[in-house]
Design brief:
The complex is a heterodimer of chains A (249) and B (447). Chain A is an alpha/beta fold and 249 residues long. Chain A is built from ten helices and twelve strands. In chain A, helix 4 crosses helix 6 and helix 6 packs parallel to helix 7. Chain B is α/β, with parallel strands linked by helices and 447 residues long. Chain B has a ten-stranded mixed beta sheet with strand order 2-1-5-7-9-11-13-15-17-19, with helices on one face. A nine-stranded mixed beta sheet of chain B has the order 3-4-6-8-10-12-14-16-18. In chain B, a hairpin with a 2-residue loop joins strand 1 and strand 2. Chain B starts with 10 loop residues before the first helix and ends with a helix. Chains A and B meet through helix 2, strand 7 and helix 3 of A and helix 8 and helix 9 of B.
């Protein structure tokens, strides 16, 4: 279970998260929705362990393990995966080299053997095919020259390869056309399992028609102001975030 | 004695002059060569070692940095076996399929070198023996004062050169395997070594030449090495250099490259060590439709000083020139890059571009970059770019968020940075050997 209690986070001395509480049990998918600037991406980065996001109060545990004690790579080894809103381009790092380095690092940290080259190639090919990622894309430097949709599919491919137990998806639908949202969502849905928790951060309800959440939380001004079932997302789609922005102000 | 010699004042300058006087009679060469040597020494006496007030040496004050000059190694050096050489080269370089020519302490070791592969397809000999009766093509190149005039380092080279490689490839001959010139230094005490290579490719000839400097010596070796390269019409050459010497070594290198029409010259320099380095390259486009590329990677640590200075002279129309250099600097290392592109009035339609990027891994590291364009033609495409920065924290976080440890992530990003220059090397095995050199440097530095 992911358990976040009374989380306060500052960025550049400014408080962004202001006492956030949330619990995501294994096997469930929770959505976090909220207006711009409510702290959604900050929550994603804090979970992954980005520098410059200073936790001043509160705690985050995953299956009882204190995540705040761990470096970003240790968190990845502990099963945390953040699908970035803006995946970076890394010229000079071949996609396959990167995938292999990441997979082996995580496997090693989990006490598993490294995959042999043929096994690795087979696994990547299978998973890439399911996400309609052309083998051409895998030959290029990581994310370089990829479209927005290709980058997001690449994120989901990495997620499928690394088999994390806690998936955090930060605005995975942003910048995607409807076909791409469907492909990405299918990829994510294929990873739903009783052992895996997911936190889907999104501004729009659209993604949640494909990735149907067990719970929906509204984040406003750094804390959860309302929680409900999947119907809450539809309600927000109609009413907008105005009432929450006012409530925060 | 020449009155001008009185301009020499520093301990190192005086030591150069004294050493020359003491050993000149034993240096190889016909009378004409000895005249060249004397001229060169007089040239050095006029300029002395360049200091920072000389614009081209602004960031590398040789006058201040050389506190002494050393004599050539005396007597017979150690007898090395082929295995010793391969071991010194390391597995990647040793595995390259090359014609090997080995210089030990500045002398061609004939027994370790392949000197006969050319047959009737040109001339190949040690410089020491070639100088005894220098053929015209050799003498012309040695005496060429047009390129790099007033160059103190080159003057010292001409005065003191003990040996090297003299290579002429006849017209229309393609040498398939790269020629690997290995420079090994075994000294345990400070020595000064001057080597000179002259490489002439006749019309439409093709060759690859790799110069490596990976000596096992940790002594204060001052190595002055110069390569004179000329490509006649339609010739093509790959010219590579790998330099990984000790922190106490000094490496002063001058490449002078003259390109005739429709030639293709493609060079790469890798520096992964050496206390003090000056790599000077003079590239002249003398005929139309020539293409020249000079790229490189330099990696410095501790207090190493690595200076790459390029002079590109477009004297003919319709030529293309590319330069891409990447520098990685750790600790208190200092990188210097100066790239001057001169486009003369007649050199219309010149397409010339230089790009240099420095990656600083430490707050004490320094990178000084000075690209320069001097253009007298009015229809040209010229550009330069220079950047200097640190590892991008966002990229680092991304890699770490995928489970890659901090050191490995840093190492990957540095490899990627250097890789953008390395990928310009056409020869795959050499490219991989250099990639391995980059990884070796990183493994040693950051684990």
């Amino acid at each position: 279970m992911l358990k976040i209690e009374n989380l306060h986070v500052e960025v550049d001395g400014k408080e962004i998260l202001d006492g956030l509480d949330i619990e995501v049990p294994k096997g469930e998918v929770h959505a976090i929705m909220g207006p711009n600037g409510s702290g959604k991406s900050t929550l994603a980065y804090v979970l992954a362990g980005k520098d410059d996001y200073v936790v001043t109060k509160g705690s985050i545990t995953w299956n009882g393990e204190d995540l705040l004690e761990l470096s970003p790579d240790e968190r990845a080894a502990a099963g945390v995966f953040l699908a970035f809103q803006y995946p970076v381009e890394i010229p000079g790092v071949a996609t396959m080299t990167f995938l292999r380095t990441a997979l082996n690092a995580v496997r090693k940290a989990r006490g598993e053997d490294e995959l042999t080259t043929p096994d690795f190639m087979r696994v990547v090919r299978e998973k890439a095919e399911a996400l309609k990622i052309e083998s051409d894309m895998l030959k290029r430097p990581l994310n370089v020259g990829f479209s927005g949709g290709e980058k997001k599919r690449q994120e989901v491919l990495q997620m499928a390869l690394l088999e994390p137990s806690l998936c955090v998806l930060d605005e995975t639908d942003s910048g995607l056309d409807i076909d791409a949202v469907r492909i990405v969502s299918e990829g994510v849905n294929a990873l739903r399992s009783p052992e895996r928790a997911m936190l889907v951060i999104t501004h729009y309800q659209r993604l949640l028609t494909y990735i149907v959440p067990d719970r929906v939380h509204v984040l406003s001004a750094g804390k959860i102001v309302r929680s409900g079932d999947k119907e809450l997302a539809l309600e927000l789609e109609k009413s907008g975030y105005a009432e929450y922005e006012e409530a925060a102000a | 004695m020449d009155a001008a010699v009185n301009t020499l004042t520093s301990k190192a300058e005086l030591a150069f002059a004294e050493t020359f006087d003491r050993v000149k009679a034993e240096l190889p060469g016909a009378d004409s060569v000895h005249e060249l040597r004397n001229d060169a020494m007089r040239g050095f006496a006029r300029t002395g070692l360049p200091n920072r007030r000389v614009e081209e040496w602004k960031y590398t004050d040789l006058y201040a940095r050389l506190d002494d000059a050393f004599a050539p190694p005396a007597g017979e050096g150690p007898k090395l076996t082929r295995d010793d050489v391969l071991q010194a080269l390391g597995s990647e370089l040793a595995a390259l399929d090359c014609h090997l020519i080995v210089l030990v302490d500045g002398q061609v070791a004939i027994g370790l070198s392949e000197m006969n592969f050319l047959g009737e397809q040109g001339e190949l000999s040690s410089m020491a023996s070639a100088l005894a009766a220098p053929p015209t093509w050799l003498e012309e190149r040695l005496a060429d004062g047009e390129m790099a005039p007033q160059n103190a380092v080159l003057c010292l080279n001409t005065a003191m050169m003990s040996d090297g490689v003299a290579l002429r490839v006849a017209a229309d001959v393609s040498i398939e395997k790269p020629i690997h010139i290995v420079h090994l230094h075994t000294a345990t005490t400070p020595v000064g070594i001057a080597t000179r290579h002259v490489i002439a490719l006749e019309a439409r000839a093709r060759a690859s030449v790799l110069e490596s400097h990976v000596g096992p010596s940790s002594a204060a070796v001052q190595h002055n090495v110069a390569s004179d390269v000329s490509l006649a019409e339609g010739a093509a050459m790959h010219h590579l250099k790998i330099q990984q010497e000790s922190d106490s070594a000094t490496h002063l290198s001058t490449w002078r490259v003259a390109l005739a029409a429709s030639t293709n010259y493609d060079a790469f320099q890798f520096v992964g060590g050496t206390g003090l380095t000056r790599n000077e390259i003079h590239l002249s486009f003398n005929g139309e439709h020539a293409r020249g590329g000079v790229n490189g990677v330099f990696m410095g640590a501790s207090e190493q000083h690595i200076d790459t200075t390029l002079f590109v002279d477009h004297a003919a129309a319709n030529c293309v020139n590319r330069m891409v250099f990447k520098g990685v600097l750790d600790d208190a290392a200092r990188g210097v890059f100066q790239g001057k592109i001169m486009v003369r009035q007649q050199a219309q339609k010149t397409d010339s571009n230089e790009m240099v990027q420095g990656l600083l891994l430490s707050e004490r590291a320094e990178f000084d970059s000075k690209p320069e364009l001097e253009i007298f033609a009015d229809d040209v495409l010229c550009g330069h770019g220079s950047t200097s920065g640190q590892i991008d924290e966002d990229l680092l976080f991304y890699l770490r968020a995928r489970g890659i440890g901090e050191l490995e992530a840093r190492s990957l990003l540095i490899q990627a940075f250097a890789g953008e220059a390395l990928e310009l090397i056409e020869n795959e095995t050499i490219r991989e050997a250099l990639g391995e050199a980059v990884r070796g440097w990183l493994a040693h530095r950051i684990g």
